[in-house]
Amino acid sequence: MKDFVYNGQPSRVVFGAGALSHLEREIELLGARRALVLCTPEQQGQAQMVVERLGDRAAGIFARAVMHVPIETAREARDEARRLGADCAVAMGGGSTIGLGKAIALDSGLPILAIPTTYAGSEMTPIYGITEAGLKKTGKDARVLPRTVIYDPALTLTLPVSLSVTSGMNAIAHAAEGLYARDGNPVMSLMAEEGIRAIARALPAIRRRSDDIDARADALYGAWLCGTVLGSVGMALHHKLCHTLGGSFNLPHAEVHTVVLPQVIAFNAPAVPGAISCIERALGPAEPRSAAASLFDLARDNGAPVALRDLGMKEVDLDRAADLTVKNPYWNPREMGPAQRNEIRQLLQKAFDGLRPA
Ligand code: NAD
């Protein structure tokens, strides 16, 4: 066995259909008395339910979370928390809302209780992102890790099937790259493989019936595992590419992950046979096919996009995307510096065209 370092993340997880009923108890355990509830404008109805449940312990709602956490929104939310005398924030929603909670925690130290309603996994990571003057800066800080996470599959029944599938693929991407992380360890590999298995089992069932609570629980369980992997070990080419495509070409987060993942796994496969076996085991032996092809099929067969052209990317931008990706190289099991620029460009072309990996 390879030597390793394992760092546990100090968060408390409460999981189960109906787990939202423990919210008051969990706020009390945090030693808090007045919670500001954060959400997007679209999820205000769900957030209102939380406020009603909290009664006197609710300080109010801030329903202006948006994608990529603009610094102005983070400041407004922080000011609102101060004005209302909030001593904790409840972030209910996907990565955008939890990201807003993190931006508040970064400056104020306010404890965050997260109630994730997508599979993006931000709730399990100390990673934050804030957008200032059009540039998204990301960083790592232990203060932004939510102290408590309530996973209630009942709250995900309203997540549209299309977003459920792409968000699930986004989660799988964390686990897939975690399996070949430079600082990986056996515990994270166990979580990663099980996370991929749970989500791959859940997505076809959710597609058949979006209110299948067992499938929703499987998907959220997988999201927890995959999010933990993202928060614990380093990512590689896939996350770098998605960050570049999302940030510089304004493409939608979960969909970009869905399209790019099979292509990156095909690219990295020769360098990481152990990780590839784990992915293949997790995706199941329906028929002999590569990990990359299985990931492609999982997305395509469940109605998700598989081509960047369908996300609004322009072919003329592929050259610039390749240049940006190799400009500040990231660690990857296969080298990806300026010398590999043409290989990265080819990978992007395959992602653009939606080619199924061999
Ligand atoms: P999102 O949070 O932007 O949500 C997408 C849409 O779905 C929103 O309109 C939201 O209101 C809606 N929605 C969410 N849950 C719903 C539900 N149960 N029912 C109905 N509608 C629902 O999308 P996301 O993919 O979860 O998050 C993407 C953002 O999170 C990106 O900015 C990404 O960079 C960030 N992210 C950060 C980390 C991290 O560790 N810091 C990890 C993953 C993602």
Quickly list its features.
single chain, 358 residues, alpha/beta, Rossmann fold, Dehydroquinate synthase-like, alpha domain, 2 domains, six-stranded parallel β-sheet, two-stranded antiparallel ribbon, 51% helix, globular, binds nicotinamide-adenine-dinucleotide
Architecture of the largest domain in CATH? Up-down Bundle
- Bound small molecules, which ones? nicotinamide-adenine-dinucleotide
Low-confidence stretches: none
Shape: globular
Quickly count the domains.
2
The order of strands across the largest sheet is 1-8-5-4-2-3
Beta-strand content: 5-15%
| Rg over alpha carbons | 20 Å
Q: What is the strand tally?
A: 8
Question: What is the makeup of the main sheet?
Answer: 6 strands, parallel
Q: What's the order of the H and E elements?
A: EHEHEHEHEEEEHHHHHHHHH
Topology:
Layout: E1 12-15, H1 23-29, E2 35-38, H2 44-54, E3 58-62, H3 71-83, E4 88-93, H4 95-108, E5 112-116, E6 127-132, E7 135-140, E8 148-151, H5 161-179, H6 186-208, H7 213-232, H8 237-249, H9 253-268, H10 273-283, H11 291-301, H12 318-327, H13 341-353
Parallel strand pairs: 1-8, 2-3, 2-4, 4-5, 5-8
Antiparallel strand pairs: 6-7
Helix pairs in contact: 3-4, 5-6, 5-7, 5-9, 6-7, 6-10, 8-9, 9-11, 9-13, 12-13
Residues 40, 42-43, 67-68, 93-97, 99, 117-118, 120-122, 125, 127-129, 155-156, 158-159, 163, 167, 230, 253-254 line the site of nicotinamide-adenine-dinucleotide.
Describe this structure in words.
With 358 residues, the protein is of the alpha/beta class. It folds into two domains: 145 residues, 3-Layer(aba) Sandwich (Rossmann fold); 193 residues, Up-down Bundle (Dehydroquinate synthase-like, alpha domain). It has 13 helices and eight strands. Helix 2 links the parallel strand 2 and strand 3. Bound molecules: nicotinamide-adenine-dinucleotide. Nicotinamide-adenine-dinucleotide binds next to helix 4, strand 6, helix 5 and helix 9.
